[in-house]
C-alpha cells in the first residue's frame, strides 16, 4: 500500500468518524425528543420513578446486547460500517448478511481494509434496496398484496422467514471463516446453551446469546491452533488491500496502528 493510498484511507477514517459521531448524536437526540416531550410538556404526569423502573427493566433484558453486539459486529464490519449499521438497524438479519456476502463475493477477509470497504458498499446498497422495496411493496402495493396472498402463505412466511435468513447468515459466516476448529467450538457452545443451560436455568434465557458469544470467544482463544502460521490474503485479493483495517500511525504513513478506542466504543 503506497503513501497515497494510506493518506486516502486515513482521510476516509477521519471523515467517517466525524460524520458518524455527528449523525449518531443527531439520531440520539431525535429518538429522545418524543419521550422528552411526553414527560415534560404533555401533561401526562409521568413520574420519574416509573421512568427509572422501565429503564432498569429494559436494561435487565436487553442491556447485555448493548455491549455484545458492538463487540461482535466490529471485527466484521469495521468502523465506518458500524456507524451505518447502528443508524439503519436490522443488523443481524439484513446488514450483516449483506456485508458477509459482499466480502465473500470479492474474496475479502473480514477485518481487513478490503473487507471494511466491501461492508460499507454492501450496507449502502442494502439500505437503498430496503427503502425502494418498502416504498413499492408496502407503500404502494401493501394493502393489495395482503388482500391477494392466502392467509396460510402469510403464516408460513411469518414462521420461517427469520430462521431462513439466520441460517443463511450462519452458513455465510462459516464459509467466510473457514476455520473448522472454531466452527465446532461455536456450534457446541451454542447447542449446550440452547438445549442444556437454558432449559436447566430458564432465568438465563435472556442472557443466552451473551453467554454463548462470550464463552465461544474465551474457548476460541484458549483452543486456537498456536502452531498454525497466520493466514495470507484471500484468493484473488492484493496483499496490501487485505492489510488489517487500522489507520496508519502519525509518525509513519505506512505503519499500522491500533484503532482508536473512542471510535471502537462509539461503534
Automatic annotation (TrEMBL):
Positions of region (Disordered): 229-267
Keyword Transmembrane: yes
Transmembrane segments: 22-44, 51-68, 117-147, 153-175, 182-198, 204-223
Tagged with keyword Ligase: no
Sequence ranges of Low complexity compositional bias: 229-252
Assigned keywords, A-Z: Membrane, Transmembrane, Transmembrane helix
Protein name: Polysaccharide biosynthesis protein C-terminal domain-containing protein
Species for this entry: Kocuria flava
Amino acid at each position: 500500500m503506497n503513501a497515497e493510498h494510506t493518506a486516502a484511507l486515513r482521510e476516509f477514517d477521519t471523515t467517517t468518524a466525524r460524520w458518524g459521531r455527528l449523525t449518531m448524536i443527531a439520531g440520539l437526540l431525535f429518538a429522545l425528543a418524543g419521550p422528552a416531550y411526553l414527560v415534560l410538556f404533555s401533561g401526562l404526569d409521568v413520574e420519574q420513578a416509573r421512568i427509572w423502573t422501565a429503564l432498569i427493566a429494559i436494561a435487565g433484558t436487553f442491556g447485555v446486547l448493548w455491549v455484545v453486539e458492538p463487540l461482535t459486529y466490529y471485527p466484521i464490519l469495521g468502523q465506518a460500517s458500524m456507524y451505518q449499521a447502528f443508524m439503519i438497524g436490522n443488523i443481524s438479519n439484513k446488514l450483516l448478511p449483506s456485508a458477509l456476502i459482499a466480502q465473500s463475493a470479492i474474496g475479502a477477509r473480514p477485518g481487513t481494509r478490503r473487507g471494511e470497504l466491501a461492508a460499507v458498499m454492501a450496507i449502502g446498497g442494502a439500505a437503498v434496496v430496503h427503502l425502494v422495496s418498502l416504498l413499492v411493496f408496502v407503500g404502494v402495493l401493501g394493502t393489495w398484496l395482503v388482500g391477494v396472498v392466502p392467509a396460510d402463505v402469510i403464516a408460513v412466511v411469518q414462521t420461517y422467514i427469520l430462521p431462513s435468513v439466520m441460517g443463511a447468515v450462519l452458513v455465510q459466516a462459516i464459509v467466510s471463516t473457514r476455520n473448522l476448529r472454531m466452527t465446532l467450538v461455536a456450534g457446541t457452545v451454542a447447542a449446550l446453551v440452547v438445549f442444556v443451560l437454558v432449559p436447566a436455568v430458564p432465568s438465563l434465557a435472556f442472557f443466552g446469546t451473551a453467554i454463548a458469544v462470550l464463552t465461544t470467544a474465551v474457548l476460541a482463544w484458549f483452543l486456537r491452533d498456536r502452531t498454525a502460521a497466520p493466514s495470507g490474503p484471500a484468493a484473488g485479493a492484493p496483499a496490501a488491500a487485505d492489510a488489517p483495517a487500522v489507520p496508519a500511525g502519525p509518525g509513519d504513513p505506512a505503519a499500522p496502528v491500533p484503532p482508536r478506542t473512542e471510535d471502537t466504543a462509539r461503534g
